[in-house]
Amino acid sequence: MIGGYWNRFLRIDLSSKSVEVFSLNEKILREYIGGSGLGAKLIYEGMDPSLDPLDPGNVLVFMAGPLTGTPALTAGRHAVAAKSPLTGIWGEADVGGYWGTGLKSTRFDGIIIVGKAERPVYIWINERRALIRDAEHVWGKDTFETEKILKEETEPGAKVGCIGPAGENGVKFASIMFDGKHARAAGRCGLGAVMGSKNLKAVVVSGNKTVPIVDKRNFLEFSKLKMKEAIESLKAFSEYGTSGGVIRAEELGDLPIRNWLLGEWKKGALKITGQAWSDKYLVRRFHCASCPIGCGRVIKLSQGDYAGVEQAGPEYETLACLGALCLVDAPEVVLLANELCNRYGLDTISTGSVIGFAMECSEHGLIDERVRWGSGEDLLRLIKDIAFRNGIGDLLAEGVRSASENIGGLAKEFAIHVKGLELPAHDPRAFNSLSIGYATSNRGACHVQGMSYIFERGATLPDMGYTEVQDRFGVEGKAEFVAKVQDLMCLYDSAKMCKFTLLGSVGPRDMLKWLNYATGFDYSFEELMKCGERIFNLKRLFNVKIGISRKDDTLPPRIAIHAKESGGAKGNLPPFNKMLYEYYKYRGWDELGRPTPEKLKELGIET
C-alpha cells in the first residue's frame, strides 16, 4: 500500500470533451512527490515547451501532494502550474485554503487540463465522476459571485477555484482565486489567463473520502504534538499574519518604496501596517485547512462599494506593492484595492508593480496618462482598467517587461522584473541571498521558491546544519545556501506544507516524518533532499529548452547597480557575479547555466 495518494489523476481535454483517469508508477511518485514537483514531471513530458502559453496545447495542472488532506500541520495546500503567459517560461503558484483538501476528498490527486472549449465551461468533480458543464451564465462575473452561483448549482460545501474578468480578458498576470471571499490565490505567473484562454471559468470539487495513511497511529500522534508546538511558537505570527511585517521591513530597508527607489518611508509604513488598521477593520482570522496559525485576515470596510461586506484582508506583499511601492498610505484605499484585485482575479504583486511603473513613466513624461504618486484614486481606477483592458490598462495588462518594451526608451529602467516576473516585496539590497534567489528562480523573481531571506532575518535551519541566523550582508557560502534552500522549497511545494512553519518549531525533518508515516516510502533525509534537487533541475531544464541561460539570470539595473541612499540597507549592493559563479559551480551547471549531462544522470532525469 502507498499511503498519502489515491494514485488517481484526471486528464481532461476541453477540445474533445474527453475525461480520462490514469495512475502513475510508484517510482515517479517517490521521486517527484506531488504538487509542483509532480506537476513539473507531467508538464515536461506532456507538452512542447515552445508552444505559446495561450495555445490550447499548454498543459494546465492542478496538483495536491501526499500530505494534502491529512492532519499534518498546514497540509491543506495545492499547486497550479503551466507555461506562464507573463514570462513565457515555467509558471507555478502555490495555494492554501481548502480547495486542495476538497480535491483529495474526491479520490483524485491531480487534474491535467489541455485543449480549449468552444464556449465557456466549468469542471465539476465529485467522488463519482468529472463533468464539463456550461459556464456562459457566470462568464463576466467576478470571483465572489462565481463561487456563490456554482456552489448553488453543485453542492453547498463544494470548493471553487475560478477566474474573474482579468483571466477572461487575458491579463497576463491574472490569478486563479479559491475559497471565495477568503481569497486564497494562485497569484503569480498569470495562470488565470491560461484558464481564460481555454474558456475555463472554474474547477469545482467536493467529496468526503479520507486520505489513506500507512502508519496512522504515529502520524496522528506526531501531528498532535507538532500542532501544540506550532501554536506556541507562532503565536505572534497569528496575531497580525504577514500584514504585521511592514514596519520591520521598512526598518531593514526591505520595503519597496516608490518603485524601489527610496530607502525610508516611516510615516507611510506606520499607516498601512496591519497593527494600524486591525482594530478598526479586522473581524476575525482565517485558518487554512489543518492549520492552527490563522495568518489570514477577515475584514469589513466602512466606506466604498463594499462597505460592510466581509472580505479578505491584505497580506504583507499586497500592502507593500499596492501601498509603499505606489506611495499610497491611506489604509482603506489599500484594503479596497486588495478587494478589487481579488474580485477581478489579479495578482496583487504584479498589479502594484505595473501601476508603480506607470506612475514613474508618467512622472518622466513617457506616457500621456496622468498617474500620480500616492494617488488612491489613480490606483483604484487603474486596477479596473487593467482587469477590463481599458485605455492604458490594456498596455499595463501585459506586465512591466512588455509594457516597457512597447513604450521604449527610459521605460525599461523603470520595469523592475526578472525574466518578466515583477519582483515581490523583498529587496535583494537588504538580503544578499535574494539576488541569487531571484535571478535563478525557475518562475522569475520569487521570494518563496528560495526563501533564504527568512534565515537572514531571524529564523534558523538546524535540520540542515544552519544553527545561527545568516548575515544578511554576508557573501561567503551564500550561493550554496541559496541552492540548498531552493531544493528544500521544492519539497514544501511538492509535499504541500506551508513554509511559514519554518518560522516556528517545525522543520524539514518533521516533514520527512509525516511523509514516511503517510506513504510508507521510508525516505532518508538525504534521499528527500535529492528529490528537491531533482525537481528544481527539471524545472530549469524545461526553461533551458525554451532558451533560458546565463543571459537571463540577472537583476534589474535599479536593484543591481543603484544602492539606497538611506534606511536599513543603505549603501549595500550584493556582489552578484561572484555569487552566481559559485552557484553554478555548486549546482553542477555549465558556464551558460545549463544542468550538465553528468548532473542530469546523477538525478535520473532523462532528456
Q: Low-confidence runs (pLDDT<50, min 5 residues)?
A: none
| Main sheet record | 6 strands, mixed
Overall 3D form? globular
Helix content: 40-55%
Distance between termini?
A: 31 Å
Number of strands: 17
Radius of gyration: 22 Å
Strand proportion: 5-15%
Q: What is the tally of helical segments? A: 25
The structural class is alpha+beta
Averaging pLDDT over every residue, what do you get? 96
Major sheet: arrangement of strands: 2-1-6-3-4-5
What are the SSEs and their pairings?
Elements (H helix, E strand, L loop, with lengths): L8 E5 L4 E5 L3 H7 L2 H12 L13 E4 L14 E6 L6 E6 L3 H6 L5 E5 L6 E5 L4 E5 L8 H11 L5 E4 L2 H4 L7 E3 L5 E3 L4 H7 L2 E6 L10 H18 L1 H6 L5 H7 L13 H7 L1 H8 E5 L9 E5 L9 E3 L3 H7 L8 H14 L3 H16 L12 H12 L4 H5 L3 H8 L9 E2 L2 E2 L9 H9 L13 H4 L20 H18 L12 H12 L5 H22 L10 H4 L15 H12 L9 H7 L4
Parallel strand pairs: 1-6, 7-12
Antiparallel strand pairs: 1-2, 3-4, 3-6, 4-5, 7-8, 9-10, 9-12, 10-11, 13-14, 14-15, 16-17
Question: How would you characterize this protein structure?
Answer:
This protein has a 6-stranded mixed sheet with strand order 2-1-6-3-4-5, sandwiched between helices. A 6-stranded mixed sheet has the order 8-7-12-9-10-11. The chain has 25 helices and 17 strands. Helix 2 packs across helix 20 (478-495). 40% of the residues lie in helices and 12% in strands.
